[in-house]
Amino acid sequence: MALSVFDLFKVGIGPSSSHTVGPMRAARLFASRLATDGLLPRTARLTAELFGSLGATGQGHGSDKAVLLGLMGHEPDTVDVDAIPGWLAEVQKTQ
After folding, report:
1. Which residues contact 64 (CB under 8 A, 6 or more apart)?
2. Which pTM value belongs to this model?
3. DSSP 20
4. Which end of the chain is more exposed for a tag (fewer CB within 10 A), N or C?
5. 94 Cβ partners below 8 Å, 6+ apart?
6. Contacts of 74 (CB under 8 A, 6+ apart)
7. Residue 30: which H helix or E strand, with range?
8. Cα atoms found within 13 Å of the Cα of residue 40, Cβ hemisphere only
9. Distance between CA atoms of 88 and 7, rounded to whole angstroms?
10. What are the tens digits of pLDDT across the range 18-58?
């Protein structure tokens, strides 16, 4: 069985992909489930709270940004990293 470097390492935004890949995927799955269940149009606000090492170092390692990007529907391995600052600025402006 052949292995690729992508089987060994997960691609994600930094500076710490170990603190961004999981939160981004979880947030995307959550938002997707809201949409599937027909709840997204009725959702005006939500709060995401990170625990453990994600909560302790979240802002420094980018976990907070990863959650926002996941809620916006982005995946760690396909997100356009050049567009991230603009998307996050828009969230800040419209929160």
Report:
1. 50, 58
2. 0.81
3. T
4. N
5. none
6. 24, 28
7. helix 21-36
8. 13
9. 29
10. 788 989 999 999 999 999 999 989 999 999 998 888 888 87
Nearest-angstrom CA–CA distance, 35 and 29: 10
In a domain, 45, yes or no: no
CA distance 4 to 26: 24
Which letter, b or e, does each residue of 3-32 get, where b requires 16 or more Cβ atoms within 10 Å of its Cβ?
A: eeeeeeeeebbeebbebbbbbbbebbeebe
Structural tokens at position 29:
């799955």
Total of domains in the chain: 1
Cα–Cα distance, 30 to 60 (Å, whole number):
23
Q: Is residue 90 part of a domain?
A: yes
Q: Give me the domain span that covers residue 81.
A: 14-40+50-94
